[in-house]
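Subject: Methyltransferase structure
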Amino acid sequence: MARDSCLARVTAGVAVGGSVGGAVGAVYGTYEAIRYKVPGLLKIRYIGQTTLGSAAIFGLFLGAGSLIHCGKS
């Protein structure tokens, strides 16, 4: 039962981290695409790459933090 609880916490941490990271990445990617004057449809690609990269990093770290915290209790 403790493993299911821990797995649920880590999964929730990854999901929340991915959501927050995606939102931050979309805002930051849009800002950078406008700032550096990325041409045409490459803006969408640039924003997408930034969004996915940021979501992956935030999700990874929040999931790892949840795993560490779950192991302490």
